[in-house]
Amino acid sequence: MERTDLELVSLTKHYGDAVAVAGIDLKIQGGSYCCLLGPSGCGKTSTLRMVAGHETPTQGHVVLAGREITHLEPVQRGTAMMFQSYALFPHLSVLDNVAFSARMKGVDKATRDKRARELLELVAMTPYAARLPSALSGGQQQRVALARALMTQPRVLLLDEPLSALDPFLRIKMRAELQRWHRELGMTFVHVTHSQEEAMALADLVVVMNQGKVEQAGTAREVFERPRTAFIARFIGAHNVVDTPSGAVAVRSDRTVLAPSGGPGMAVTVKAVEYQGSHVQVHLATRLDEQDSADDRPDSAGWVALVPDAQFHAAPLEPGQRVAMSWHEADAHVLQG
Ligand SMILES: Nc1ncnc2c1ncn2[C@@H]1O[C@H](COP(=O)(O)OP(=O)(O)OP(=O)(O)O)[C@@H](O)[C@H]1O
C-alpha cells in the first residue's frame, strides 16, 4: 500500500517577535485521525494553516507522502481545509457549493455534478441539493462544507474547530459522524480542538501542544494514563498533581483515596461536594479558605477525589471536614519537568 504519512519537520512560525510555533517534529500516519489539542494561543491553528498552505512557515518542512509540499499552493498539496466558519457561498445552491472547486478547474458540468451528488449522498444531504445555505441548520451547513472540501479528493482533510459552533447535543452527534466519515473515506484527518474530551473521543493520535511546542503525542490512552508533564495532567483533566518528596506525581481523581482524618496520607480539607450521579466529586485543599485552583497557576494546590456514589453515601463528607488523602503507589505516575 502507498504510504501517505504527513510529516512536519522543525516546523516554525514567527509573527514578528512572537513565536507561534516553535519547531514541531511530528509524523502522522496516513489514514489516521489526529487531533491537535491545546489551550488558546498554543499554535494549533498556525500549524494547521501551514499544512494547508494558508501560512508560510518561517522555517521547517511539510512533507506529504514523501513529497515536500512546504511551498506549494493550497490546491496543489493534496490537502483540503474545512473552516471554523463554514464559509459557504450564500448565493449558490448546496450542489453548486460542493461542485465549485471542480467548476473552477474547468471540469464539465455533468462530471462535477455527478461527483458532487455522490458526496452529498455520503453526508446524507441529497434531499437538500437545491437549497441555499441560509435555509440549512448549522449541522447541515457543516456537512455541505465537508462535502465541498472532499470534492478536491484530498489525502488529508484539515478541520479547524469543526464542532465549536454547534450546540452540545449536535456536537456529540457530529462527533459520531466525523468518526464514520473518517472510517469510510480512509484518509488522514487532522482536527484542531481545545477540547480534551473531543480529542480523546476521536483521535488515534492526540498531539497536545503548549506554547508552540508538542508537549506530548500518543494515543488517547497513553496520554491519559501516562501524562508526561504536570501541564498535560492538568490539561487532560481528571488527574491530581501532587508534590511529593520524590517529585511531582499525577494521580487519577478516581484513584485518589479518602480516609477519615488521622489516617495514612496527606491531611486535607473538603472544600466542596458535587453530586454527579454515578460519582460524587469531592474538592479538596490543604485549607478551607484556599482559592480555587486555576489552570494558569501551576503551583495551585487543589485536588479532586471522584468517589463512587454508593461508597460516598455510606460515609458522606461535608465541606470543612478534615480527611486523609492517599493513593496506591502503583497509581502515582511520576511527572517530568
Ligand atoms: N496573523 C498573526 N499575527 C500575529 N500573531 C498571530 C497571528 N496569528 C496568530 N498569532 C499569535 O500566534 C499564537 C498562536 O496562535 P494560533 O492561532 O496558532 O493558536 P491556537 O492554538 O490555534 O489558538 P486558538 O485556540 O485561540 O485559535 C498566538 O499567540 C496568536 O496571538
TrEMBL record:
One of its GO terms (molecular function) is ATP binding. Residues 6-236 form the ABC transporter domain. It holds the Pfam family TOBE_2. This is ABC transporter ATP-binding protein. InterPro entries: AAA+_ATPase (IPR003593), ABC_SmlMolc_Importer (IPR050093), ABC_transporter-like_ATP-bd (IPR003439), ABC_transporter-like_CS (IPR017871), Mo/tungstate-bd_C_term_dom (IPR008995), P-loop_NTPase (IPR027417), Transp-assoc_OB_typ2 (IPR013611). Transmembrane segments: none annotated. Keywords: ATP-binding, Cell membrane, Membrane, Nucleotide-binding, Transport. The lineage of its organism: Bacteria, Pseudomonadati, Pseudomonadota, Betaproteobacteria, Burkholderiales. The keyword Transport applies. PANTHER family: SPERMIDINE/PUTRESCINE IMPORT ATP-BINDING PROTEIN POTA (PTHR42781), SPERMIDINE_PUTRESCINE IMPORT ATP-BINDING PROTEIN POTA (PTHR42781:SF4). It comes from Aquincola tertiaricarbonis.
